[in-house]
């Protein structure tokens, strides 16, 4: 076998690695940006945006809609 027969496979492997790294980089940047914009909300901790004593993990759909939309109703 000559080296030329391995070239297409090697090119595809390199392209796959580059694509994977680029995707992971984008996901990291998007996550950091989301945390900056929305704050460190967690289902395990109390959030500043919720009423005192309420965890966002225990909200029903009406409470979620009220928290997200405020006074506006669909």
Word description of this protein:
With 74 residues, this protein is an all-alpha fold. Helices cover 55% and strands 0% of the residues. The protein has 2 helices and no strands. The protein has helices at residues 7-38, 61-69.
Task: Label this structure with key terms.
55% helix; single chain; 2 helices; rod-shaped
Question: Topology, please?
Answer:
Layout: H1 7-38, H2 61-69
Write a compact overview of the structure shown:
55% of the residues lie in helices and 0% in strands.
How confident overall, as mean pLDDT?
Answer: 75
Low-confidence blocks of residues:
none
* Strand percentage: under 5%
What's the shape?
rod-shaped
Radius of gyration: 23 Å
Alpha plus pi helix count: 2
Give the quaternary arrangement of the chains.
single chain
